[in-house]
Each structure stands twice: as structure tokens, then as C-alpha cells.
């Protein structure tokens, strides 16, 4: 049974996320509200715990966060935030970035990639790919791990598939958290989860957001439907999912397909838990993050076996 805190968050998500997804008009109004709020800046609390530098890549801001002490850096993380390819980095993301940087002794690189509807998915990849390639090619003696939640999980897989197809260096390990792996949304299981279980995402909301970020791409394109992309040969993956997440049925199919293609995949399925629960301040998330950190420190093969 989910913790009381998870149950509380479930109700908060229903009240805050479901209403704006009902119509295109309410969705666009919420986008404008979020743009004015500008949530992407790290708070004073975050800055007290991390040393944050800022650079630019492809005309976009990129944050680099490290522990606020003199200890050694033991890993490099590219963290790509979620938000339906539309919404910006949030305080929830920053809290998770603090955990990653401090628990893993990592330099966490966080790009503010261009967002829809002002920009389309191809433009997002155009900004992110050089940054990914640069980090994957760097030889500084530390491992490179690519992570992301929701849309960021899609980029985690899609960028690595592009590197694999091009014969370029890839991240040593991947952590796609509640990723969207099928933009067609044709799996009938989605209707059961979306209508009966998911407190955060709705089929209508996903359909609206898809019209805003796809541009000229077809929904089955591997840039969004990564289950159609190259899977054999991907690096080891840790994939946190939840039973009450609209995107989970397709993500579970991806996990099974990856295993069938010889990939090293560890997946956890949070019973009664919602979309991206893994980065929420929950007891379930704390335990699952501990599993992730142990997994990242364990020896693994460098690619699909």
C-alpha cells in the first residue's frame, strides 16, 4: 500500500494537474501561467547545498551543479528534466538534482532545452545532442550517466539511440524515469490506466501536448516513440515505473523488448504510484533511489549483451 504521503500527493496532483488538461484552451492558459512563473531558477536553499555554474549551449542556458564542498567529483550526470516537452525545470527537479549531486558526488549538467509550442521536438534534439555527445566523448576518468524524467526519459533513450546508430560514444548507463516511449498512444491498456488510475496525466492532455511538440514528425518516429528505435546494444538501464502512470504500460513493453534484445535492464514498478513518483519526496522514492545508487556503483557490462 502506498505511504500516506504518496496518497496525499495523489490528491494534490488530481486537483492541480487534471483541470488544465481538459481542453486546448485551458492547456494553453496553463502554459502562459507557467511561463510567467519562471520556475527554472535554483532557490537560495538549493544554492546553499550546491555550487552552480552556468554556461550556454546551442543558444540555451545550461546549469552545472556540484556538491558545495571540496570533495572529489566521482561521476558526471546529464539530467534532462521532464514536463511534457512544454514545461520548464521545476523546484521538484532541483530537489532531486541536489540528491544526485550530493549522494553520487556528481557534477550534474542540467540543460534548459527549448520548449514547445514555441519550438518543436527536432529543435530540442538539435540543442541536446551536441551536449550529450561532448559528455559521452570526454575522457576524464569519471563515468557518464544520462538520466531524465518523463520527457527527459524519452530524450535519455532517444539521444543514446542516435549515438548508437551513428557509432558515437554513449553514456555508460541510462536512467529513464517514467519515460514516454510510444507517441502513438495506441496501446489499449493506456485507457484503463489513464481513466481509472493516473492522478496526474490524462489521455486528453497527452493528445493536446503531442500536437504542440511534434511539428512535422509522425507519432511513430523513433525520436518520440523510442520503442521503435535501435535497442540492441544500448547501455545498462535502470527504469523506475509506477502502476498508476499512464505511460507505464508502454514503458513496461520497452523494458521487456530491451531484455529480449539482450540489454542489461533493471526495472522497478512502484505499486499504486504515479508518474515520476521516483523524484517526489516520498519514502518509496528514498528507498528506490538507494537501489539506483547501489546499481550505479555496481560493476556492469558497458553495453547491451
TrEMBL record:
SUPFAM superfamilies: alpha/beta-Hydrolases. Keywords: Hydrolase. This is Alpha/beta hydrolase fold-3. Residues 77-278 form the Alpha/beta hydrolase fold-3 domain. It holds the Pfam family Abhydrolase_3. GO terms for molecular function: hydrolase activity. It comes from the Eukaryota.
